[in-house]
Write a structure and sequence with these properties.
Length: 81
């Protein structure tokens, strides 16, 4: 799967949830529901932090972790406070 398809899959998965889903990469915070934001930021070689907060965060965290793993992306799931 190419970069564009990977980003589209992540955005589609993120938009299934009400929770806020944000990636932190190089001191930038990117809304995982934003195609343009992710496309210009996500990298398969660097680790991104994945922050999920909201009413369905348990399900969203599991789904987002699965999609990142499926596409071979490095990530660190940050615990909510």
């Amino acid at each position: 799967m190419n970069h564009t398809e990977t980003v589209v899959r992540i955005v589609q998965e993120a938009n299934k949830f009400k929770s806020s889903i944000v990636l932190k990469y190089q001191n930038k915070f990117i809304d995982a529901k934003s195609l343009l934001g992710l496309y210009s930021t996500i990298s398969d070689s660097a680790e991104q932090e994945l922050h999920v907060h909201g009413p369905d965060e348990v399900e969203a965290r599991a789904a987002m972790a699965a999609v990142f793993k499926k596409h071979g992306l490095k990530f660190k799931l940050i615990d909510s406070v």
